[in-house]
Amino acid sequence: xxxxxxxxxxxxxxxxxxxxxxxxxxxxxxxxxxxxxxxxxxxxxxxxxxxxxxxxxxxxxxxxxxxxxxxxxxxxxxxxxxxxxxxxxxxxxxxxxxxxxxxxxxxxxxxxxxxxxxxxxxxxxxxxxxxxxxxxxxxxxxxxxxxxxxxxxxxxxxxxxxxxxxxx
Length: 168
Hints:
Elements: H1 2-6, H2 8-20, H3 25-49, H4 55-78, H5 81-109, H6 118-167
């Protein structure tokens, strides 16, 4: 249930491997991807046996994944480990606040507190969703900026090497 609702692997597993076990960021991310792949494959197979897999939607998600895999491969070349840790930390803090806003909504739905007004629920849900979008955009911005800087630095170094060899 936790894995389905808050992406325990990426949200808890990767930071745990990085900060608790001391694994490099790239190793933590790659390990989590293998775990997610194996678990996802098992779950998908089980649901497919019961006819609960929408092949069209699966193909759309796979097409998006192909883009993400390419971007990730490039990113691991140019993005330093500390940047990945920074992104994970920033996203986790923003998501923490986003989920915190939903606690009163969930508590109200479970009958633990008095029911909230419909307007209040809408505001809390909208703000929570907005924070999730902000987390996504901030994370993407930081990673893409680091990639761009890494690519520029590599090109500058390559250009300098060409010029240096031309003078010798």
